[in-house]
Amino acid sequence: MNKIILTGHVATEPEVRYTQTEKTIALFRLAVNRRTHDKQEHADFFTVIAWQKLAEICGNNLTKGRQILVEGFLQVRSYDADDGTKRYSTEVVAQSIEFMGKKPETLANNTDNASPADSFGSELPPDEEIPF
């Protein structure tokens, strides 16, 4: 079984691109703390890839420093570098992402003047625009 669950902080702003077949892809780095046997803390950095709707969510909502939980699988790719050598890349392909902790200060400052009701749901369209 190939399944990975990581909790960490977004280390780079998500880079959102589109493939030739119009599929959305988002790439970013995730910093994950790891303790060694001598109680020292180190950070491991993982490349995370998200596709389609999840990629759009990442592009619109993730910022550097945001704490998230990523669930997905590991993917190992190989490619030929410009110098002709074979290179390998290990990435986490995200299947779900959960936001954790508080928003980073830059995001929190944008919503300081908003009431709790402002962030709940969205405005309803006039009755004639309701599809049922």
Q: What are the defining features of this structure?
A:
132 residues; mainly beta; 5-stranded mixed barrel
Walk me through the structure.
The protein has a five-stranded mixed β-barrel with strand order 1-3-4-6-5. The protein is mainly beta and 132 residues long. The chain has a single domain (4-111), classed as Nucleic acid-binding proteins (OB fold (Dihydrolipoamide Acetyltransferase, E2P), Beta Barrel). The longest helix is centred in the middle third of the chain and has 10 residues, at 52-61. The chain is globular and about 40 Å long. The protein has two helices and six strands; from the N terminus they run ββββαββα. The N and C termini lie far apart (44 Å).
Alpha-carbon distance between the two ends: 44 Å
Category by helix and strand content: mainly beta
How much helix, percentage-wise, in residues? 10-25%
Measured on Cα atoms, how large is the radius of gyration? 19 Å
CATH architecture: Beta Barrel
* Total separate domains: 1
Count of β-strands: 6
SSE pattern, N- to C-terminal: EEEEHEEH
Mean pLDDT over the residues: 84
Largest sheet: 5 strands, mixed, barrel
Give the full name of the CATH homologous superfamily. Nucleic acid-binding proteins
Major β-sheet strand ordering? 1-3-4-6-5
What general outline do the C-alpha atoms trace?
globular
Task: Report the CATH topology name.
Answer: OB fold (Dihydrolipoamide Acetyltransferase, E2P)
- Poorly predicted segments: 115-125
The top level CATH class name = Mainly Beta
**Number of separate helices:** 2
Range of strand content: over 45%
